[in-house]
Sequence to fold (228 residues):
Amino acid sequence: IAARRRMEETIKAALKEIEVLLREVYHRVKNNLQVIASLLSLQASSLKDPQAATMFRESQNRVRSMALVHEKLYQSHDLANIDFNAYVQSLVMSLLRSYGVLADAIAVNISVENVSLSLDTAVPCGLLINELVSNALKHAFPRLDRSKGEKGALTILLRPAGQDTFELIVRDNGIGMPPEVDMAHPETFGLKLIATLAKQLRGTLECRRNGGTEMRLVIREADDQKRS
Fold:
């Protein structure tokens, strides 16, 4: 019995060391990504070309979305999966600040239903949400008349849709995506990235353009990351 207890204590100590090591790895990755984001911000501020500066700031937001994944893992009790509700809340608030959106200009509704994703799924999913929300903030509401009380609406939904399958919806009530934009053959970098991330997540992306724009994606957890 004494030998078994000593073995159990040894195993517990080893697991604790592994946990500490993982948290340190997540913390260092987060810090390194934040340094990259700061460098992109510094570079953007020195550029005289507004279009080039915008591209740098968009890349900065993408890096921040990845850093935020590692920050949430570092703070999580479960080092294998991320509380995606807190993650999406933080990510969207960061984007609103980045694009200078006033608190009363766009009503944001975020609903994440009991979803916890592995790192391999969370990073591309976070990047995808970053792109979809950024597109809405940049293009959906160019003609809001604040003097008439007009207000935009942006909804982000993530919910289970079956075993190891989730449904992501990003919807706005803006002017709608132009009919000439073909999601099957995207031309802009942002839309190409969205298509690439959807493919990486083994998802089916659907675009609806009635009364605004709705992007709907079914996400499947990677086989080697499925939870028991």
User: Anything to note?
Assistant: DSSP finds five helices and seven strands in the chain. The beta strands are 81-83, 106-112, 116-118, 152-162, 165-172, 204-208, 213-220. The mean pLDDT is 82. The CA atoms of residues 186 and 192 lie 5 Å apart.
